[in-house]
Amino acid sequence: MEIIKIRHPYKQAEIPAEKVVLVLGFFDGVHRGHQKVIETGKKLAEKHQLKLALMTFNQHPSIVFQKVMPENMRYLTSLEQKERHMAELGVDYLYEVEFTSSFASLPPQDFVDQYIVDLHAEYAVSGFDYTYGPKEIADVAHLPEYARGRFEVVTVAKEEDAGHKISSSRIREMMEKGNMEEVTDLLGYIYEIEGTVIHGDARGRLLGFPTANIKTKSTVRLPAEGVYVSELKVGDTWYPAMGSIGHNDTFGAGRELTVEVFILDFHRDIYGEQVAVRWNHHLRGQVAFDGAEGLIKQLKQDEQDTRDYFGLKGKEQ
To answer: Which of 7, 38, 163, 224 sits most deeply, having the most CB atoms within 10 A of its CB?
Structure first.
């Protein structure tokens, strides 16, 4: 897959000259609804022997339209994660457009001319709710009017689960409830975040549960605070683990939110490693214990519950 980064206005020489099927959308999370749109484009590309292109943005449009600070935006997928998903789904050309004020101010006809026609689209594929300007004049119902017969418009109906639309907002809602099974079902894969292993206060080691402290970007969306059955990826290997998101209130109020992962039967130092964490199942909410003894007892139960989840034997004594 070739990644082509575009800043408006771009030069035509930046665009491959081949005719393509062009898929349109922001695709935060690349969930099952998004996958249906991309797969529709993929089938068209294969049928007509065209390349599959996809156009997305480097940041969420609300940063421009609603003046949300970039560091306060929480994404389900980073741009790097999104790139990997697109490659796995068979995209040939990934256009990453910088969503700026000048790009956002394009009238609908100019957007269609410059970012569909001039990207050599034979087919423009999008979800039913895709917009490219004010909804009342720039939704998919108006797209054939702006196309002027230069490309074919293909609109994909909403994908539903249990009678409800699969959407990024619904996934965020389930994450806030700690319902990771529902999140997995809606995404079509286990939710994961990326970060760097850093030094913490080593309190877990003193309790008998040494944890990897994961530093994430401010733009990463975390599940609800609590303790989870997790997996941690070091290098190319996933390890069963127990993950915690919280403030360690047992040891005092007002502490920073941390992401800590205890890896089962793992005895290596991994400081500085770039890792990924999967959030499989919510075990319990965060509790402020009276002291270390109560916390250790609960952590032992959490570990056993995690082992049971993975079908692993108890830790050798």
So the answer is: 38
Q: Is 185 inside any structural domain?
A: no
User: Is residue 175 a part of any domain in this protein?
Assistant: no
pLDDT at 179: 97
| Same domain assignment for residues 105 and 225 | no
Q: What is the mean pLDDT of residues 236-251?
A: 86
What is the greatest pairwise CA distance in the chain? 73
Cβ atoms within 10 Å of 271's Cβ, excluding its own: 10
Domain shared by 288 and 223, yes or no: yes
Domain shared by 32 and 116, yes or no: yes
Report the SS3 class of residue 308: helix
Q: What does the block give as tokens for 129? A: 């709710």
What CATH number is associated with residue 288?
Answer: 2.40.30.30
> Residue 298: is its pLDDT beyond 70?
yes
- pLDDT, residue 308, reads 97
Q: Do residues 158 and 33 lie in contact, with contact meaning Cβ atoms separated by under 8 Å?
A: yes
Which H/E stretch holds residue 160?
Answer: strand 160-161
Per residue, the 3-state secondary structure of 186-243, as one string, reads HHCCCCEEEEEEECCCCHHHHHCCCCEEEECCCCECCCCCEEEEEEEEECCEEEEEEE
d(CA 144, CA 140): 8
Confidence of residue 74 (pLDDT cuts 50, 70, 90): very high
The CATH number covering residue 88 comes to: 3.40.50.620
Residue 204 within a domain? yes
- What is residue 317's predicted lDDT score, i.e. its pLDDT? 35
Are 76 and 186 within 8 A, CB to CB? no
Using alpha carbons, select from 276, 284, 290, 287 the residue that is nearest to residue 303: 284
Binned at pLDDT 50, 70 and 90, residue 31 comes out as very high
Structurally, the chain folds into a number of domains equal to 2
Residue 99 to residue 96: CA distance in whole angstroms: 9
In a domain, 183, yes or no: no
Q: Which of 203, 215, 194 is nearest to 271 (CA)?
A: 215
Q: Which domain holds residue 246?
A: 190-310
